[in-house]
Amino acid sequence: MAQALDPHAAIATTASGVETDDGPLRTADGMPLARALARSQTQARRRAFLLVLPLLAFVMITFVVPIGQMLQRSFYNDGFSANMPQVSEWFAATEPGTEPGEDGWAALAADLQASAEARTIGVVGTRINYDVPGTRSLFTSTGRKVRDGIEPPYREALLEIDEEWGDPVLWGAMRQASTPLTTNFYLASVDRTRAPDGSIEQVDPRQRVYVMLFMRTFWLSALITGLTFLLGFPIAHLLATLPTRKSNLLMILVLLPFWTSLLVRTTSWMVLLQQQGVINDILVWLGVIGNGGRLQMIYNQAGTIIAMTHILLPFMILPLYSVMRTINPSYVRAARSLGATSWTAFRRVYFPQTLPGLGAGALLVFILAVGYYITPALVGGSSGQLISNMIAMHMTDTLNWSMAAALAAILLGSVLLLYWIYDRLVGIDNLKLG
Amino acid sequence: MALPTYASPLERIWHWAYLVICGLIFFFLIAPIVVIIPLSFNAEPYFTFTEKMRSFDPEGYSLRWYRSLLTFGMQNPDATGTAFWADTWANAKWVNAAKNSIIIGFFSTILATFLGTLAALGLSRPEMPFRRPIMAIMISPMIVPLIITATGMFFFYSNPCSMLTVFGHSGQCGRLAGTYLGVILAHATLGIPFVIITVTATLVGFDQSLNRASASLGASPRRTFFKITMPLILPGVISGALFAFVTSFDEVVAVLFIAGPDQQTIPRQMWNGIREQISPAILAVATILVLFSIALLTTVEMLRRRSERLRGLTPQ
Amino acid sequence: MKSILITTTALVGFAATAGAQEVNVVSWGGAYEKSQVEAYNKPFTEETGITVNMIAADNPATPLKAQVEANNVTGDVFDIEVSDAIRMCDEGALVEIDPADLPAAPDGTAAADDFIDGALQDCAVANIFWGTVIAYDTTKFEGQAPSTAADFFDLETYPGKRGLPKNPKRTLYLALIADGASPDEIYDLLGSDEGVQRAFDKLDTIKSDVVWWEAGAQPPQLLADGEVTMATGYNGRFFDAMVGEGKPFEIIWDGQYMDMDMFVIPKDAPNPEAAMEYLKFATDTQRLADQAKYIAYGPARQSSASLVGMYQDGKTEMAPHMPTNPDHLETAVMDDPEFWADHDAELSERFNAWLASS
């Protein structure tokens, strides 16, 4: 069975048949060789694919589809439309900007009452609150009052409960929410909002956060990548040029942090960097700083930068090292013998050869840094928080899951772009661990 | 790294400066990990070296934080003998966390290693179609920010059948969040890239003609796999498995999002501890984990060298 | 395909079935959790054989809301603030609790009359009163000690970092009090844009010197570690550090924020019977009084008050440490659950934006 399926076996069989037969090449059982080859190749492809299939299905089900479903929330939110059917219908039937007549008010009142009774009014209010901050309570408190019934004329009745119901901005927001598809969460993730007339404008300066946080995330990741390069390059070079026995020994110093729990390393930095921590104690003891002038190195950006540089350093060293080990030292020697100074030889001959490793390391560190969550959450204070922390906050604290999904989509988009570049430049097959 | 004989004095100075710089960077890498070990024996609830510790006074050191790992959460910490150990085993929070971490790590590793090795074998066949995109998808759990993965999993594991609505299923079938199975599946997903990477790396150096030789000598594919392929890629499989285990053993974000009260793992317990009351008990756990990673690192290094020797990659 | 669906359904269903007799209680961690373990859980397990899993959260209302929203409730009893209890009850997420089911006081007074006003809600039963107060490290201010909320914002006279909670509820009011507002106008101010802005302006004056905390156990720890010289936090936690561990802290009662903690049971709780049993057990007269033996929080039952005596060390009188002590109530701000049920979301949003834009 195995022999018949193997393309090489097929060739071997025909090779012996060539001597006796004329016409097209045939296998021993008389099938044209080209067809036999094609068939056995298809079978080989299928068998290879079948080996991969279980894992592919597993990853699709537990990873790709769940993330896709989550991202769907960034543009699909039926919190209003599903729970306020009548007024949503009214919006669909009228032109944008229509002044609500008694039919519109009646639909609104009926929906509010039904929603309050079904205890979904909180969901409805939350949805509108995303676009018009401060209106959640308008829905819940009105809901409490109309739960047991409301009398026409509805316009007057609702305005009696709260004048805010007459606000055109509120009606504009309800109109937008009356269809579940929305781009508002993406607009909000770049600090934009939709004005009542439908145009897009920047939000109040006091509320602009996300653009700044994205910028900070990318800037800090770039900074950390740069720092890992500065610290990683000499180490990788040393390891690559030392005799194997010595470099294997020193390699352990790089690999041990790599294998040590992320939380352990973060804890260590907390212990070291605290105001009453080891580093400050040593500095005070050495007399560099006074006891009152202890340095604030944690719970701010400095904490995030130091800890993340340490944690990501091995990801820079390892690819650099594996490239540097393959560089032939005779090139540098040749440059020196031709009269180059050691600096020129390094700059013009050695360094360019390390670029593949540098590119791989830098991209990997940057990709990992952009998505970091644990370390900034523990040592970052408020100025060292990254966009991941904002996603986590919307997931667990404010429960604005659509917003979390929109921010996640943007972050994921940029990471996948970098991943694609990495694949083109380095090839994922070349990813090495330890 | 010897200096060439023609080096100028300036180059000599630079060379020594370079070695000093490297020494400092190594110090930066390793010091944070080493420093917590003595601090975990602190007799006082501080994170710094006390007067007594600095003068190596035995009174400055104690095992109280290690003891507290056993007693924290016990019903009756003053019990003695078997009662103490039975209580610890049943109730101590860190002991329970360790049990959970090991159970979850073990099963997720088995799953990831089995599926990952199978896929790596397929991926390294020259006939494999769509090799690059498939590889990219399988490595992506390592690349996609954990918070995004965990968020996606949070919704999926809360209601795993919601994706079946397209097939006409009701979309309701219980949940995986808050169950061991859920955490195991999540950790398996996160561990898979490591298995794929290490096993395909081993297979790069694998001589496919060995398989053909075996086949031509009449061995069945199964026999070929177990007698020829498996022994050669085993070091890669084991290090992949160790990576997968460590990934699970160290994972906290997915646990925060999908684990229930019964699945408190060591990292989860550490996360609580660090955010709340970072007592030196955390350092005692950290010390144990560092020793654990040293053991793992040694195993992986030995495997790697054995594998390279077997495949004749390093002439030693 | 069908059989696969059935198998997955069965498998997932099997995985979801919970263990034996147990109840998952989500509470606030740290010293407070310890007091509940001693006063409620241990006697409860002894009496009923039901094991209690304590789960710590920074604020248990957060996981509760997330669990309800995701249709994935894993906790049975949650210890949450009044405003959250009202809001979640409004949204239909909580089991309604009939006061008649609760144990009567030892003298036979019905629970409905025994609990202090506001301590019984449609879906919630209060266990304790607690205060958010300022505490400082006495070793840091040897000359002149701070004594008012305004001193908290005075970085010149009282230098050092400040610890504040990362939420609007327990920061904005303090800024207003420190800015000279009187306790009874706080909610009017917070209801208006100008008032909120005034609070943020005041907070801006110390923003760069604030260490933000999230879990109740952090502020005493920050003080003990010397990371901050003054912090606001839950009075019981400071009490625990001062009396229990002998830390050199002092509490400023001026501008305390008083609130109640309530036990609630979510509708889809995995162990509803055990949860109800736990809730009844934990809110009887003796248990509430017992808890005060371990932490300085005031019991929510009138009948418990007379049973409260000494701290567990047997020599510290509890009364002067209680947030409910009349001396501590003169400038206290009382929690307004209705206000926060309606405004928490929007003020949180504004607070987070303010916090992130440094």
From TrEMBL, chain A:
Domain of life: Bacteria
Primary subcellular site in the record, as a coarse category: membrane
Listed transmembrane segments: 48-68, 218-240, 247-264, 302-323, 357-379, 399-422
Its membrane topology: Multi-pass membrane protein
Domain ABC transmembrane type-1: 214-422
Pfam family, one: BPD_transp_1
Keyword set, alphabetical order: Cell membrane, Membrane, Transmembrane, Transmembrane helix, Transport
Compartments where located: Cell membrane
PROSITE patterns, A to Z: ABC_TM1 (PS50928)
Record-linked Gene3D superfamilies: MetI-like
Signal peptide positions (record): none
Homology family: Belongs to the binding-protein-dependent transport system permease family. CysTW subfamily.
Protein name: ABC transporter permease
Naturally occurring in which organism (per UniProt): Paracoccus albicereus
Automatic annotation (TrEMBL), chain B:
Xref: PROSITE patterns: ABC_TM1
InterPro entries found in the cross-reference section: MetI-like (IPR000515), MetI-like_sf (IPR035906)
Localization of this protein: Cell inner membrane; Cell membrane
The keyword Glycoprotein belongs to this UniProt entry's keyword annotation: no
Domain ABC transmembrane type-1: 98-300
Primary location: membrane
Membrane disposition: Multi-pass membrane protein
TM spans (from-to): 16-41, 102-123, 135-157, 177-206, 232-258, 278-300
Domain of life from the UniProt record: Bacteria
Entry keyword set: Cell inner membrane, Cell membrane, Membrane, Transmembrane, Transmembrane helix, Transport
Matches recorded under Pfam families: BPD_transp_1 (PF00528)
Family: Belongs to the binding-protein-dependent transport system permease family.
This protein's name: ABC transporter permease
Automatic annotation (TrEMBL), chain C:
The name this protein goes by in its record: ABC transporter substrate-binding protein
Endpoints of the signal sequence: 1-20
PANTHER family: ABC TRANSPORTER SUBSTRATE-BINDING PROTEIN (PTHR30222:SF2), SPERMIDINE/PUTRESCINE-BINDING PERIPLASMIC PROTEIN (PTHR30222)
InterPro entries referenced in this protein's UniProt entry, alphabetically: SBP (IPR006059)
Superkingdom of the organism of origin: Bacteria
The organism of origin for this protein: Paracoccus albicereus
Lineage of the species this protein comes from: Bacteria, Pseudomonadati, Pseudomonadota, Alphaproteobacteria, Rhodobacterales
Keyword tRNA-binding: no
Any Pfam family: SBP_bac_8
Keyword Signal recorded: yes
Gene3D superfamilies: Periplasmic binding protein-like II
UniProtKB keywords: Signal
